[in-house]
Amino acid sequence: MSNLDVRPKPVQCGGRDDVPGGPVHELLPPRRVPLGESTVVRRLLPSLGRRMVGAWCFVDHYGPDDIADEPGMQVPPHPHIGLQTVSWLHDGEVLHRDSLGSLQTVRPKELGLMTAGRAIAHSEESPRDHPSILHGAQLWVALPDENRHTDPAFEHHGDLPVVDGPGFNATVILGDLDGASSPGTTFTPIVGADLALDDGADVRLPVEPDFEYAVLTMSGVTEVDGMRVEPGSMLYLGCGRRELPLRADGDSGLVLLGGEPFEEKLVMWWNFVARTGEEIARAREDWTTGDRFGEVRGYDGPPIPAPAMPATPLKARGRTR
C-alpha cells in the first residue's frame, strides 16, 4: 500500500519517552485520504497525537465499498524501504505484484506480508474479475536497525492459527496470541490479530503487560475496556494490562495491534521508513533514477513518481507530537 499524498509531510516517531506506563484510552480519529483511482481510506496511524503502537507505524482502513461496477483498488508500482507491509482483507481480493517477481492474489483472512528491507517496489490492484465488496486494512511494521537493510521478501500465508473461545475467535496475523503463533516473519516482539465477536459476546482476552496495544474496529460496535468504539475508529490502550475486556453489541470485527514499545527513533516520509533525512533523500533519488528498487512487471500503467522533498530538514524525533 502506498501513501499517495502529493505533498507528504515528514513524520517523526519511535522512542519510549512518550509511551504511557499504564492503561489509557485515546480514541484516534480517522483522516480520509484518496488512494489510487477509486478508493478512499481512513488513515488512523500515524495520527496527530499517536505515531506508533509497538512497531506498527501505519494503519489504513478501507471499505466496505461496493466496487461491482468500479475498478476497485488500483495502486501503481511504488517503492518502500525499512518496513514490512501487511495486507489484510475482510472482503474482496487484492492482486500483489512486486519487483522480486511475486504475483499473488490475497483473499480474506489470508496474510500478505512484504518485507521491504533495503528496497522493494510493488503494486496492488483489484483483479479484473473481482468480488463486489472490498473491505480491509493495510498496515506497516517498522524494521529495527539491525534488520532494516535485510533482503526484500514476500510471504503469503493462507492458513493462519485461530484462537477460539465462547462467542469469539481470533485469527493470529503476526506474532503470538494466547499460545498461538503466526507463521509470518517478525523482527520485533509484536502481535496482530483479527477478532470476530458474536452478538452479546463478553470476552476477556489475555494480553502482555509489557506490550502497548490499540484496537481497530472493522465492523459492528464493540465496547473495548468499557469504551464504545465505532467502525473505522481506533482506540489506543497504552501498556500495563494482562487482559482486555471486550463486549459486542451485535456481531463485530476488530483488529488488535500490539507490541513492545519501539525504542529507536524514526523518520517516515512518503513510503520510506529511515533514520535520517539523508537516507530518505537518497531513496527518493534512487526511485526517480530507476536504481535499487527493481521493476514491477505486469501492472497496466506507469509507476508513481516521487513527490518533491520538503523544504525543511527531516529529523528523527519521538513517538508523539
From TrEMBL:
Annotated region Disordered: the residues are: 1-25, 291-321
Residues annotated to bind Fe cation:
78, 80, 122, 124
What Pfam families has UniProt attached to this entry?
Pirin, Pirin_C
A molecular-function term among this protein's GO annotations: metal ion binding
Q: Which UniProt keywords apply?
A: Iron, Metal-binding
Record flagged with keyword Electron transport:
no
Cofactor (UniProt): Fe cation
How is its cofactor bound, per UniProt?
A: Binds 1 Fe cation per subunit.
> Which InterPro entries does the record associate with it?
Pirin, Pirin_C_dom, Pirin_N_dom, RmlC-like_jellyroll, RmlC_Cupin_sf
User: Which SUPFAM superfamilies does its entry note?
Assistant: RmlC-like cupins (SSF51182)
* Sequence ranges assigned to domain Pirin N-terminal in this UniProt record: 45-141
Sequence ranges assigned to domain Pirin C-terminal in this UniProt record = 193-292
Q: Indicate whether Metal-binding appears among the record's keywords.
A: yes
Q: Which family does it belong to?
A: Belongs to the pirin family.
What's the protein here called?
Pirin family protein
